[in-house]
Amino acid sequence: MKVKFLGVLGTAEIKVTGRFPEKFLNMASAQGISMWDTVLGEKELVFKTFILHLGKLEGVQAKSGYAMEELRRSGLLVFVGKIWRRKVLLAGFFGFWLVLYYLSGMIWRIDIQGLENIAKEEIEEHVGPLGIKRWTRFNKLDMDHVERQLYLEFPEIAWVALERTGTRISIRIVEKDYDPLQFGAPIDIVAEYDGIISEMMVLQGVPLVEPGMTVAKGDVLISGYREEDGLVNAAGSVKAIVYMEGYGEAALQEVETEFTGNEKLVQILRLGGVNIPLSRTDHGFTNYKREESVRYLRGNSNTPISLVRHLYREVNMTTHSYSAEEADDLARERAKIAAHQKVGEHADILKTKFENISLDAIYRYKVTLTIETKIGKERLKIEGEEIVE
To answer: What CATH architecture is 2-80?
Structure first.
């Protein structure tokens, strides 16, 4: 164990010159000096020894009068010595990691999730003075206090939670269900698609269209209104003739990729134009797809320091070859499927039209479905559309 420890600390290669060099070898051995890889010549002796034994060797050399020359050194003590002589580099290295350690205790990024009616800027403006802002240290934050203040400031919030992940603060918000009666606005029924009205049944509210009229997505079909006793919300059913389109294409030869589930994450610290790998960069995949994400210092893309994550996902690649007839049929089928995926559950398909739009060796089709479906959906009345009965 002691020999291994001495070897880790460092070794040196020594050359001794003089008559009868075996005498020097015997004198050094008598002093307990370890020597190996010995090459003995007529007037020259070359061997390796531990750096910590060099002091004893110098004593033997002084007594014997032989000339001794150190050829090379290696080991931990040599490395430390080189680093120590470059004090500026050493200080910069440790200073860099100290700065990173210090910055890791600060907020770099703020994510606000779940907002629908509340503006993100309002939340940021309110939590900033409470300490939720970039470069604030985490140990100075009282996240429970911030949550309580958000409840008090925004009555629309039903639930809020602050979470820390690394240098990121996430503010997750769930808003209360919007009650239009509470805000004094009635509900309209508006068109969900472009189409031609085919059938209407009005239970409540004022009809603004009739069968045979063409409407665009978002047009008001049945209007709610305000009366003396309160609000009247639109209610009823509206059907229309709607056109749904789908596109599909195929080639004579296609490559199908399938993920195997094997993944390798490579992380890189980017300092300006220099990339420093933080993990092994070889992934060992022959075929793969790479996903890249970059997290900048302080969330600012102008900052020269960033953490780059490369996610390598292994894929199997299978080549499929088709005849011209098979590729044409495949493109036609894909277009049909794409169009049908847009059709609602209760729609009736009245007509299917195929249009060949192939170009060169790529087979393409456009499918247009003529359907009859319900197109009305509820929407809070927009200011300026008010109807008073």
So the answer is: 2-Layer Sandwich (3.30)
